[in-house]
């Protein structure tokens, strides 16, 4: 029998590239935007029932339709948390329309790589495509954000 | 038991995953299959396959004999009086749904009360919820004591005073490892006039099950959790009850006569086995039961408890770990959380060490909510696991936590 032994294995587990490991580890602990926004302009939850991930995205939007602030709360895995933190860093300053378009492009790119250039803040997250079973974790905050923005009446 | 020799019977265990020897700690989700089970299925398809019960040729006879011999084997496995009390299903979930639906069609009515528990797998909750929606049955729950992982059985007399029609519960919790005193509960339920149903998914392959001793009216388990193939399971039911209940699935095999005006039905077990069954699955299950009984289910139970106790002790040494369920008298699984690490990450990173864990709610969402959790990691053992594998799990969890804590 091949006895399992940790003696011959001293290195950290290989998630994907070391850079991606670091990105997930650090970004998942980025709590700068991890808070409820109350009051907020809109918010929405995302849940992955199979793995127990729960995230909620909050937006504060100016009267002219510009995202002033974006925060999240989460009881989720590291990839959801890192993805949520990235989302909340990326969207402030964009209009609702631009944000919705960016969310759509990001979600499409996760499943089908495109030539569309995404903001530098998002690019590291794309390596999750090498872990197909975890793509839905990376998607969760973004689908919640999309849902929240859809609640805003047009105009 | 010679664990090394037993491990040698399982071809799948001897592989590398992510460059590491596979450490399979997910048998509560599905067990692995010994060569004898695989060979039995292959032999069946190479030599004996045909449809059952309706053929007039040699292969039809062989297939029918193999199928019915499997049924008789399950009967002896459960110590039932009659093989007709064994209905083949796709698994525990189908068995639970089958009995719930049949009771819903023929016995239960609006306002009737079902007693179950707060620790149930969804397979023993959702079918009753569906009946509540469709015909208006009521459901009450034996509560869980979160601190101990045990049912609060002091509530049972009061619940039984409400004259339930059915008491349906799990023998062993797939998340807590709690072993419920089903003989006692069935006896009390019987006195109160209730039918009893046992979810034996986690117990069937891990200890002796004697349905006459348990005293239940129905019992359901899955073949794939006890070294058998997927797609086959068993619903046991007392013959007089099964013959009085309406069938659920209609079609070939379960009818006596069919006219344009209507149909009449056979008695159990055919009554509940419409269409072509999973014949190869039954053959594989037969081989699995033979394999388990050659080891001895009491030997398996003792080894399960030894591993569970060792795992509890070993994992308890990890700072901050929360192990769910009773500390003693538990089945061979350990479900836990680690601080600042989601169970999903524990499972993913454990996989990088070759360790197969399960992470999530384990089809126990109400239980998770009762415990104040959304997701947990579970290591579940069977007789092909070793103490060294538990040591490796503990060592790997230390490394995984260190990886996440690294401030780099």
| Largest beta sheet: strand ordering of chain B | 4-12-11-10-9-5-6
Based on the structure given, which CATH architecture of chain A is correct?
A: Alpha-Beta Complex
Beta-strand percent range of chain B:
15-25%
Averaging pLDDT over every residue of chain B, what do you get?
Answer: 96
**Architecture of the largest domain in chain B, according to CATH?**
3-Layer(aba) Sandwich
The number of distinct structural domains of chain B comes to 2
Briefly characterize the structure:
The complex is a heterodimer of chains A (155) and B (408). With 155 residues, chain A is of the alpha+beta class. Chain A has helices spanning 18-27, 78-90, 96-111, 135-150; strands spanning 42-48, 53-61, 67-75.
List the helices and strands and how they pair.
The complex is a heterodimer of chains A (155) and B (408).
Chain A: H1 18-27, E1 42-48, E2 53-61, E3 67-75, H2 78-90, H3 96-111, H4 135-150
Antiparallel strand pairs in A: 1-2, 2-3
Helix pairs in contact in A: 1-2, 2-4, 3-4
Chain B: H1 3-8, E1 16-17, E2 20-21, E3 23-24, H2 35-48, H3 58-78, E4 86-89, H4 92-106, E5 113-117, H5 126-135, E6 138-142, E7 144-145, E8 150-151, H6 156-160, E9 166-170, H7 182-191, E10 195-199, H8 211-214, E11 218-222, E12 233-237, H9 239-244, E13 255-259, E14 262-265, H10 279-295, H11 297-316, E15 322-324, E16 333-337, H12 343-352, E17 355-356, E18 358-360, H13 365-371, E19 376-380, H14 387-405
Parallel strand pairs in B: 3-17, 5-6, 5-9, 9-10, 10-11
Antiparallel strand pairs in B: 1-2, 4-12, 7-8, 11-12, 13-14, 15-16, 16-19, 18-19
